[in-house]
Amino acid sequence: MATDNNIAVSVKDLEKKFGSFIAVNRINFDVKRGEIFGFLGPNGAGKSTTIKMLCGILTPTAGSGYVDGYDINREQELIKQNIGYMSQKFSLYDDLTVEENIDFYSGIYKVPPKRQRERKEEIISMIGIEEFKSMFTGILSGGLKQRLALGCAIIHEPKIIFLDEPTAGVDPIARNNFWKLIKEMANKGITIFVTTHYMDEAENCDRLALIYQGSIIAMDTPINLKTQCMKEKVLKISVSNAEEWLYKLDKVEGIKESALFGTAIHTIVDDAVKVKQSIKKLFQETDIKDFTIESIQASLEDVFISLIESHEKVGGMCELK
Amino acid sequence: MFERIHTILIKEFKQVFRDPRMRSMIFISPILQVLIFGYAATTDVRNIPTAIYDLDNTSQSREVIRAFSFSKYFSIKKYVDNDKQERELIDKSQVSVVLRFNHGFAQDLEANKGAQIQIIVDGTDSNTAAIALSYAGKIIQKYSYSVLQNRASILLKQNMQFPSVDLKDRAWFNDNLESRNYFIPGVIAMLVTVTSMLLSAMAIVREKEIGTMEQLMVSPIKPVELMLGKLIPFAVLSFIDLAFIAALGVLLFKIPIRGSILLLVGSTCIYLLTTLGLGLFISTISSTQQEAAMSIFLFLPVMNMLSGFAFPISSMPKAVQYFTYLIPLRYYLEIVRGIFLKGVGINILWPQLLVLLIIGLSTITLSSLRFHKRI
Question: Which residue in B276, B237, B249, B261 sits closest to B356, CA to CA?
Fold first, then answer.
């Protein structure tokens, strides 16, 4: 398993229990080199626990895993030398300047002295922070801090990078720039393992694992997840006073789940044609003419909600047709 | 190993000197404490404000009053002539001592009866009151003796000398019994304790608070490198404080350093094992700087009070005295005072040094084991 050179991260029956609480429940997955692999799930699903086990700072209670060929149960020190890690806390020192932060991590990762200066220039130009390089980190915007944290995490040129909720608390434009950087790195063959609970962000990943209550409930490319992983259909209903209708629609037979998406309602149904008729009838009965109902492609969030529902009913993973 | 420690050291010193609160903790605090203990916080009792309530108003009573006013311990502020005034002066803390002669004081003396003087002291400050009473006793005794001598001379019609025993006192190591000589070396011990224990704990916990600890844990840094990198700066800063206070004390207050400076440095190194170890331990039980500060202020005052910094251990109840053997600051204080004032060397101080070494090695070992496990 560890010998396959195309596999950056490989996990088999990985489990972490805290007392009787199962934080990660025997999960299995492989991440290919150069892949952006997303771990998508709500808070408390086990994302950070998994990432901590992979980074060698938490010991699994069962199962095995390999990161860059090193055993997560025995070779934590080697793993630490060969990976980059960045968390949502953007672990920087506010009272050091941008350059001093880079120098500090350079020293911690023992970047050879000859290479340090060159590497610092590379990082600074890659993250586009030239004009701020002698400023204190504390005064930088969230987006700049985020990119600097990434820069510090890859100072030693790791082949695998773990990002734990890297875009929490950053504005959308900065988030976009950040993902551009991530994609550039992936294009250079660096493996990216990223956790997030932002659905829109998850679309940037090559492959996604949906994790819920410690279990992986689906794993595929975002497009496959959206088109194949969901048996139900999604109806988008546009009507004025959508919030009011959200509750009224719950009573319509055949609607399994409804949620607001902007000003429209998304409902998950088994039989799209039948439910469409029932809703139309309901609107006509109450004299509402200004509405549209259309079948749409499920968003990741729809897929996630539906998968969680069926997982709670029957358990197990999404079986692709 | 040393490259990483070096990297952390550079970072720590930059952070310490950039943080205005840290700077004042390290430089302003020693100056203030030395000035306060040098000038203000003194337990020497002089010029006790005194009132005279003389209902007798005779040459004899005035003679006693004169004896009091000539003594440097009492300073006569007021004369009163009724109980209400007397009460008021003490209530308002305008005087701490009232000397009262009832009508008939001189008469009793002349009649060879025991004459009485009443002394009232404000017992709120029990220490000053006790000292005032003992000074007053001495003055009265001396007066009483001279009265006796006079009377005998008159009776026997010749100048008469009675045998008497005189106590000639001499205070070794502190000729003038200046309390600052006692306190300023103590300030060194206190500040070394606070700097090394509090600041090191805070600096480690701060990394947890801002999330950089997690980042460092994921890096290949070894716990021992991180530990040394975080503790060494505060050992260095403790020595800066030590040198600073010693210089101020010697130059400004003429505090003697009679012993070996090398021994002072060496024993401080040994003492730092304990305080840095405690700081490290506190960092492992706290996740925020607030928690760390709270834990330290839970036992720092106890340590301070039972160390003999201000209150003599020999006056404590026996059980408490045994307990003070557990307090490392106690030994360090004995060493620091021994070196500064007594000028004693390792031949005298080795038991204290040995105890400190044992406490220090066990504290730092246990704390670093705990730190390794937690990290």
Answer: B276
- Burial class of residue A176, CB neighbours in 10 A (0-12, 13-18, 19+): middle
DSSP B124: T
Residue B10 CA neighbour count, 13 Å, CB half? 14
In this prediction, the answer to ipTM > 0.90 reads no
CA distance A68 to B233: 37
Q: Give Cα B236 distance to the centre of its chain.
A: 25
Grade residue A239 by pLDDT with cuts at 50, 70 and 90.
Answer: confident
The chain A residues in contact with chain B (CB within 8 A) are 55-57, 77, 80-81, 83, 85-87, 89-96, 100, 103-110, 153, 162
Q: What are phi and psi of B162, to 5 degrees?
A: -100, 150
Mutate which: B10, B12, B218, vs A, most A CBs within 10 A: B218
The model's pTM is 0.80
State how far residue A204 is from chain B, nearest Cα, in angstroms. 25
Neighbours of A80 (CB within 10 A): 21
B134's tokens:
């003992």
In chain A, what residues touch B214 (CB-CB under 8 Å)?
Answer: 57, 87, 89, 91
The CATH number for A7-226, chosen from 3.20.20.150, 3.40.1190.10, 3.40.50.300, 3.40.190.10, is 3.40.50.300
Radius of gyration of chain B (CA): 29
